[in-house]
Write a structure and sequence with these properties.
This is Phosphoribosylglycinamide formyltransferase. Catalyzes the transfer of a formyl group from 10-formyltetrahydrofolate to 5-phospho-ribosyl-glycinamide (GAR), producing 5-phospho-ribosyl-N-formylglycinamide (FGAR) and tetrahydrofolate. The chain is α/β, with parallel strands linked by helices and about 190 residues long. The protein has 6 helices and 7 strands. A 7-stranded mixed sheet has the order 3-2-1-4-5-6-7, sandwiched between helices.
Length: about 190
């Protein structure tokens, strides 16, 4: 059974989908802990499903590296097989990535390598493209630059706003994330080259 720690910053819609999938007895992975970099609404999902949670508030630390050290200490308590960044709106410090690589994956609301960074949906609209997408990647020390595990195209419709387009991307992100976690757990997908 693959054990997961999920890190969030916001409402945790991907987290909830993962928790619902993992609640099925035949799902080959279990969430053992949920962490956040702030008081996040998504922590309520962990509580609802009886999953332990922790918060490592970014603002409480003098440097990103100090925050990363405490985050790693919290993750080490749970010894997860895989760390899932699910809407964590922080770049992990290089030392954290090096410590757990390649066992960290991330979802991204764009068809990488197109539109990396925190504003993938907004950037796609600004570029007036006809399609964007969703991706699941292995986290490396760059910005959304790691190996791509799964991705799917999504059309940009006339009149789309950042909110409407993001709402159409989210269900695809969730489906891809659940599929990737299952494939990793079943040994069908390798994280390391």
């Amino acid at each position: 059974m693959l054990t997961l720690a999920v890190l969030i910053s916001g409402t945790g819609s991907n987290l909830r989908a993962l928790l619902e999938a993992a609640a099925h007895p035949d799902f080959p992975a279990r969430v053992v802990a949920v962490g956040a970099d702030r008081e996040a609404d998504g922590l309520a999902h962990a509580e609802e499903f009886g999953i332990p949670s922790f918060t490592v508030p970014y603002a409480a630390f003098p440097t990103r590296e100090a925050w990363g050290d405490e985050l790693a200490a919290q993750l080490d308590v749970w010894q997860p097989d895989l760390i899932v960044l699910s809407g964590l709106m922080r770049l992990l410090p290089a030392a954290v990535v090096a410590r757990y690589a390649p066992h960290i994956i991330n979802t991204h609301p764009a068809y990488l390598p197109e539109f990396p960074g925190a504003h993938g949906v907004r950037d796609a609209l600004a570029a007036s493209v006809s399609q964007t997408g969703a991706s699941v990647i292995v986290v490396d020390d760059g910005v959304d630059s790691g190996p791509i595990l799964a991705q799917e195209r999504i059309p940009v419709l006339p009149g789309d706003t950042e909110a409407t387009l993001h709402e159409r991307i989210k269900p695809v992100e969730r489906r891809l994330l659940i599929d990737v976690v299952q494939r990793i757990a079943r040994g069908e997908l390798e994280l390391a080259p």
